[in-house]
C-alpha cells in the first residue's frame, strides 16, 4: 500500500513539474479556422485599412475596421459575462511627423483587457496590426485588403480572445489591434507609453505580423515552420550591465530572448508537430514590427510570423505582371496554418497568465569551484523553483532541476564556466514563469 501511494505521489510530482496541463490541449482544439477565415475576410473587405484612410464610412477604411474589431471584442466580452474591458487608446499625429504622415491623423488602437484574479497589474499581450498598405506607403485610397499583412494577425488575436475568455487567469491578458505600423510603429509607441502612464507591469508582448502564408518566394511550402524573432539584450541596459556581460555572459540572454525560448518550449511540449525557429534578431533584416516600441521601453517582446514569406504579396498594388499575381489578397491565405499559429499564441498566453511572477533577483556564484551556487528572491504564489542550464552554444534551455520551495541551491559537480543558467518560479498548477538569467553575483 505504501509503495502504491509513493508511486502515485511520484507520478503526480512528475506531472506537476513537466509543464503538461490538459486545459492547454482543450485550448488548441477550440481555435477555429472557420472563424479566423471569416474574420480575415471581413477585414479584407473593408477595401483599405491604411492608417490615413476613411474614418467616416461604415463599410470602407480604417475607421470602419476598428469599430468592427471593437464590436467583436465586445461580443466576446458579453459571451463571457463582461470579462473583457474594451476601449480605444489613441494618439494624435500631425502631418509631416514623418514622410508617411501626409495629413493629420488619430492613430487608434483597440484594446481588450482580461483582468487577472491574483496579479491584475501584470499583463501579457497579444497583438495584431489593423492597418494595411499598397506599394506607395502614402497611398491611402487604393484597395489594400491586407489579407495576410496583417488581417491574419488581427484575426488570430480576436480568436485567441474568444477562446481564452472561457478561462480565469492569475495574470491579466491584453488582446489588441494596433494601428499605424506601416507609418512608423505609431500605435505600438502609443500603447507602450499608455502602459507606462498606467503603471502596468508588462510581462511581454507576442506581436503577430503575418501568420497566414505557407508558400514562400523561395519555393518552400510548409504549414509547420514559423519564426520567433527576438533581440539579444534590452536596448535600455545600463553601461554597468553591458560591462558585466563581458565577464559573466548574457549576450543572448535578455528578457526578449527568454520570452522567445518560453514560446519555443511550450510549443514543442504541446504542439510537437510544429517547428518554431528561434531567429536571433529583433526583426527581419533592417525592418521592424510592433514589438519594437515595447522593447524600446524595456519590456520583453517578440515577433511571431510565418517562416516562408512571399514578397509579391506584401506592400503591393494589386495587379498581374509578367504572369505573376501581385497583391495581398484572400486567395493566398492558408487559414488552417493561421489557426495553428493562433493556437501557438493562445497556449503561451495561457501558460504565462497561469504562472507566478518570475524571481526579481537571481544571484550566481561558484568561481574556481566544482559547483554552481544560486540564491534568488522569493516569489509570492510560487510553490517551488526550477534551475535551468544549457551549453553556452545551445539556443534552448536543455537541462533543468526542480529544487523545491527554497531560495538557494547548489548544483554540485557542475562547473559554472561551461554553462549558462537561469531560474524559473513554479506555480501550484505546474505552470512556470519565464526563466530569469542571473542578474547579481554571489560574493
Describe the structure.
One of its GO terms (molecular function) is metalloexopeptidase activity. It holds the Pfam family Peptidase_M28. Residues 109-310 form the Peptidase M28 domain. Its main location: secreted. The protein has helices at 2-16, 22-30, 33-44, 62-79, 151-164, 181-184, 186-198, 239-248, 255-270, 292-296, 335-353, and strands at 84-93, 105-114, 119-129, 171-178, 201-208, 225-230, 275-280, 301-306, 319-321, 324-326, 362-365, 371-376, 382-391, 399-404, 408-412, 419-427, 440-441. The chain is α/β, with parallel strands linked by helices. It folds into two domains: 22-353, Aminopeptidase (3-Layer(aba) Sandwich), CATH 3.40.630; 362-441, Immunoglobulin-like, CATH 2.60.40.10. Helix 9 (255-270) crosses helix 11. The longest helix has 19 residues, at 335-353. It is globular. The termini are far apart.
CATH architecture of the largest domain: 3-Layer(aba) Sandwich
User: Shape, please?
Assistant: globular
CATH class category name of the largest domain? Alpha Beta
Classify the secondary structure makeup into a structural class.
Answer: alpha/beta
Task: Give a count of the beta strands, DSSP E runs of length 2 or more.
Answer: 17
- Main-sheet strand order equals 1-2-4-3-5-8-6-7
Alpha-carbon distance between the two ends: 48 Å
Q: How do the helices and strands line up, and which of them pair or pack?
A:
Elements: H1 2-16, H2 22-30, H3 33-44, H4 62-79, E1 84-93, E2 105-114, E3 119-129, H5 151-164, E4 171-178, H6 181-184, H7 186-198, E5 201-208, E6 225-230, H8 239-248, H9 255-270, E7 275-280, H10 292-296, E8 301-306, E9 319-321, E10 324-326, H11 335-353, E11 362-365, E12 371-376, E13 382-391, E14 399-404, E15 408-412, E16 419-427, E17 440-441
Parallel strand pairs: 3-4, 3-5, 5-8, 6-7, 11-17
Antiparallel strand pairs: 1-2, 2-4, 6-8, 9-10, 11-12, 12-15, 13-14, 13-16
Helix pairs in contact: 2-11, 3-5, 3-11, 5-11, 9-11
Amino acid at each position: 500500500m505504501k509503495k502504491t501511494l509513493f508511486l502515485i505521489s511520484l507520478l503526480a510530482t512528475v506531472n506537476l513539474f513537466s509543464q503538461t496541463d490538459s486545459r492547454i490541449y482543450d485550448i488548441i482544439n477550440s481555435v477555429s479556422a472557420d472563424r479566423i477565415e471569416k474574420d480575415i475576410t471581413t477585414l479584407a473587405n473593408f477595401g483599405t485599412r491604411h492608417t490615413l484612410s476613411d474614418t467616416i464610412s461604415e463599410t470602407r477604411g480604417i475607421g470602419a475596421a476598428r469599430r468592427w474589431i471593437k464590436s467583436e471584442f465586445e461580443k466576446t466580452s458579453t459571451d463571457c459575462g463582461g470579462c473583457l474591458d474594451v476601449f480605444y487608446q489613441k494618439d494624435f499625429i500631425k502631418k509631416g511627423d514623418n514622410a508617411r504622415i501626409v495629413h493629420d491623423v488619430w492613430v487608434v488602437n483597440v484594446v481588450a483587457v482580461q483582468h487577472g484574479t491574483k496579479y491584475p497589474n501584470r499583463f501579457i499581450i497579444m497583438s495584431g496590426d489593423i492597418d494595411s498598405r499598397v506599394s506607395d506607403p502614402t497611398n491611402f485610397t487604393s484597395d489594400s485588403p491586407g489579407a495576410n499583412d496583417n488581417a491574419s494577425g488581427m484575426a488570430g488575436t480576436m480568436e485567441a480572445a474568444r477562446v481564452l475568455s472561457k478561462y480565469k487567469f492569475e495574470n491579466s491578458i491584453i488582446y489588441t489591434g494596433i494601428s499605424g505600423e506601416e507609418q512608423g510603429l505609431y500605435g505600438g509607441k502609443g500603447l507602450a507609453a499608455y502602459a507606462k502612464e498606467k503603471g502596468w507591469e508588462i510581462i511581454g508582448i507576442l506581436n503577430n505580423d503575418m501568420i497566414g502564408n505557407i508558400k514562400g518566394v523561395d519555393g518552400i511550402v510548409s504549414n509547420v515552420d514559423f519564426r520567433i524573432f527576438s533581440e539579444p539584450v534590452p536596448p535600455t541596459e545600463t553601461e554597468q550591465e553591458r560591462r558585466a556581460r563581458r565577464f559573466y555572459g548574457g549576450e543572448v540572454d535578455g528578457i526578449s530572448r527568454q520570452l522567445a525560448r518560453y514560446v519555443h518550449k511550450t510549443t514543442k511540449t504541446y504542439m510537437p508537430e510544429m517547428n518554431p525557429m528561434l531567429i536571433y534578431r529583433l526583426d527581419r533584416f533592417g525592418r521592424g514590427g510592433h514589438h519594437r516600441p515595447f522593447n524600446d521601453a524595456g519590456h520583453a517582446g517578440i515577433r511571431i510570423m510565418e517562416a516562408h514569406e512571399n514578397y509579391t504579396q506584401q506592400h503591393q498594388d494589386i495587379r498581374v505582371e509578367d504572369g505573376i499575381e501581385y497583391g495581398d489578397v484572400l486567395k493566398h491565405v492558408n487559414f488552417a496554418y493561421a489557426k495553428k499559429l493562433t493556437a501557438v499564441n493562445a497556449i503561451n498566453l495561457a501558460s504565462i497568465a497561469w504562472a507566478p511572477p518570475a524571481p526579481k533577483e537571481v544571484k550566481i556564484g561558484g568561481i574556481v569551484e566544482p559547483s554552481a551556487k544560486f540564491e534568488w528572491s522569493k516569489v509570492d504564489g510560487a510553490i517551488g523553483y526550477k534551475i535551468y542550464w544549457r551549453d553556452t552554444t545551445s539556443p534552448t534551455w536543455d537541462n533543468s532541476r526542480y529544487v523545491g520551495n527554497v531560495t538557494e541551491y547548489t548544483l554540485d559537480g557542475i562547473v559554472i564556466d561551461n554553462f549558462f543558467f537561469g531560474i524559473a518560479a513554479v506555480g501550484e498548477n505546474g505552470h512556470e514563469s519565464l526563466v530569469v538569467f542571473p542578474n547579481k553575483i554571489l560574493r
